[in-house]
């Protein structure tokens, strides 16, 4: 019996500006119109509304990219990567983080945008997903923003439908093992370390991943491991939900 394989990688066209008009979030799970706490709002990331404001703040601090397995040296690179590696993936949903204490309850995006968060590797058939990408902009770090944004996506995933959630069983989080701030942030919100996954990323050329390439025979970029953490439904119902809600209320 003969076989064929008609798959072709999608063509990557560099973007210089987001396309206007209706935006298809193209996600395989439910899409919230908004998720809110008294101080933070999460809304679906719409490139032509949010990209410029996000990148203008992001590029002010090169350290934000230190532990990321990507490199965005300019605006077109950022737009192109987001479109072709995240927004076009049906397993991924990106949400814009809005600080409601700024700009008339967050209506002024340039003043109130605080980062992005969302889901990747969403598998509705297994009731599991991963939190990511998570980037808290410098002006919102060491504030209530991180705990509220993480808490909102945890509640939307793990709460039962009668409580406004989706009743998922498992939420994961992966981090650069050297990024202890990310690991601690997850642990503070109730996630538990499961272990370290090896060689999970091929890094952009010139970026340190901690695992040198093997004499060029397996690609040119360095490799990177990932610390894996998780939070499951039984943890959630055994007290982690209440812990998360208290963390969201902290000043």
TrEMBL record:
One Pfam family it belongs to: Acetyltransf_3
Domain N-acetyltransferase: 65-208
Molecular function as annotated in GO: protein N-terminal-serine acetyltransferase activity; protein-N-terminal-alanine acetyltransferase activity
SUPFAM superfamilies cross-referenced by the UniProt entry: Acyl-CoA N-acyltransferases (Nat)
Signal peptide: none
Sequence intervals crossing the membrane: none
Protein name from the UniProt record: N-acetyltransferase domain-containing protein
Organism from which the protein derives: Candolleomyces eurysporus
């Amino acid at each position: 019996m003969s076989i064929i394989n008609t798959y072709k990688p999608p063509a990557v066209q560099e973007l210089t500006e987001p396309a206007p008009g209706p935006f298809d979030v193209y996600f395989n799970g439910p899409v919230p119109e908004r998720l809110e706490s008294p101080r933070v709002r999460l809304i679906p990331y719409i490139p032509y509304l949010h990209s410029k404001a996000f990148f203008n703040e992001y590029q002010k601090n090169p350290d934000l990219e230190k532990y990321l397995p990507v490199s965005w040296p300019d605006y077109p690179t950022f737009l192109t990567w987001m479109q072709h590696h995240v927004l076009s993936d049906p397993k991924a949903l990106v949400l814009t983080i809005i600080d409601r204490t700024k700009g008339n309850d967050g209506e002024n995006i340039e003043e109130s945008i605080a980062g992005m968060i969302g889901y990747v590797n969403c598998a509705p058939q297994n009731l599991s997903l991963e939190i990511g990408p998570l980037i808290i902009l410098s002006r919102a770090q060491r504030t209530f923003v991180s705990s509220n944004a993480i808490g909102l996506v945890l509640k939307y995933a793990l709460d039962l439908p009668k409580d406004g959630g989706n009743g998922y069983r498992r939420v994961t989080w992966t981090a650069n093992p050297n990024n202890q701030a990310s690991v601690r942030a997850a642990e503070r919100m109730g996630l538990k370390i499961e272990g370290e996954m090896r060689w999970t990323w091929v890094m952009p050329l010139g970026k340190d991943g901690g695992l040198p390439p093997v004499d060029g025979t397996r690609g040119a970029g360095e490799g990177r491991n990932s610390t894996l953490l998780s939070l499951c439904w039984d943890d959630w119902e055994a007290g982690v939900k209440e812990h998360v809600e208290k963390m969201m209320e902290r000043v």
